[in-house]
Amino acid sequence: MKLVKTISEVRAEVGRARSSGRSIGLVPTMGFLHEGHLSLADRCCELAGYVVMSIYVNPLQFGPSEDFDEYPRALERDLALAEERGVDLVFAPADRELYPTELTVTVAPRRLADRLCGLSRPGHFEGVLTVVGKLFGIVQPDLAVFGQKDFQQAVLIQKMVIDLDMPVRVEVAPTVREADGIAMSSRNEYLSADERRRALSISRGLAGALRSFRSGERDAAMIGRGVLQTMEEAGGVDVEYVEVVSADDLEPVQQADEETVVVVAARVGTTRLIDNARLGAPDPGLARLL
Ligand code: AMP
Fold first, then answer.
1. One of 7, 33, 37, 85 is an active-site residue; which one?
2. Which residues neighbour 155 within 8 Å (Cβ) at sequence distance 6 or greater?
3. Are 52 and 25 in contact (CB under 8 A)?
4. Is the minimum distance from the CB of 199 to ligand 1 under 6 angstroms?
5. Tens digit of pLDDT for each residue in 121-177?
6. What confidence tens digit (pLDDT) does each residue in 38-63 have?
7. At residue 264, does pLDDT exceed 90?
């Protein structure tokens, strides 16, 4: 595995791999890798002949009062993990490499980014799409893998490649969970033992939604209410939203079906956590809680 820090080195390495006939896969991350990220690398290795992972904490997607400075970083450890999982190239640029001058042009999402996480994080998805657009321009991957954990992000990226005719196949991989059900996240690091115990109500609530859907409940409001109740009962969980939406356009639905997703955001202490469950898809990590 090779580590590079400049765009020209990425282009040279990827160019060599491409001319040897390998397809190029990309896994964008902000590092502090856990099994969730590594499962995306595994998927990418299955689908592409040459796997690039970017590790970059993108300032553009953090609001002024968010955790950009505190965001955990551990490049040496990340490199060892990425290598173990078959990544061929890690791209870990400095800020001045990606943003040498103030941007004149960004990728600005429309309405779909104004709801859910977009409400409490104005500008966040514009920052995400802009850096992902840049990474697509730098690596020119045939395929890129994202996690379902960040559901709104995954949908927006799928819409971006369609709307902007980017020749990249976007693959969305399932959420990897800890044994107790909590979705893996670099931000779980911030939780105290007590907060973490309370945070488990998020995955417990989502497991409850799956249970009620499987036993025949189709009333979206009822399903959402159950999740909210579980989270509120835990105490110390400040719910930002619980919504029952269509997987395609994130619009709220009244009747749940196989294409419905329950999306959740909450603050536990100062840590903001998100999670979701597709009602029609298997989620072994949630099924374990049933
Ligand atoms: P991040 O480093 O948080 O920007 O995440 C990088 C990629 O990993 C994104 O596509 C995330 O959706 C994905 N990811 C984060 N957590 C998980 C998880 N628990 N399971 C699967 N994918 C994840």
1. 37
2. 112, 247, 248, 249, 250
3. yes
4. no
5. 999 999 999 999 999 999 999 999 999 999 999 999 999 999 999 999 999 999 999
6. 999 999 999 999 999 999 999 999 99
7. yes
Q: Residue 251 pLDDT > 90, yes or no? A: yes
- Domain spanning 2-173: CATH superfamily: HUPs (3.40.50.620)
CATH topology (fold) of 186-287: Pantoate--beta-alanine Ligase; Chain: A,domain 2 (3.30.1300)
| Rg of the Cα atoms in the chain | 19
85 pocket-lining for ligand 1 (C-beta < 6 Å): no
Pocket flag, ligand 1, residue 27 (CB < 6 Å): no
Per-residue exposure over 263-287, b if at least 16 CB sit within 10 Å of its own CB, e if not: bbbbbbbebbbbbbbbbeeebebbe
Tokens of 187: 């931000």
Nearest to 206 by CA among 239, 173, 254: 239
Q: How far apart are CA 177 and CA 188, in angstroms?
A: 11
Residue whose structure tokens are 């109740």? 229
The DSSP bridge pattern shows strands 260-268 and 237-246 to be antiparallel
Q: Where are the chain's structural domains?
A: 2-173, 186-287
pLDDT digits (tens, 9 = 90+) for 266-286: 999 999 999 999 999 989 999
Token pair for 73: 């970083």
Q: Is 124 a catalytic residue?
A: no
Helix (H) or strand (E) holding 4: strand 2-4
Question: What is 243-273 written as a DSSP string?
Answer: EEEETTT--B-SB--TTEEEEEEEEETTEEE
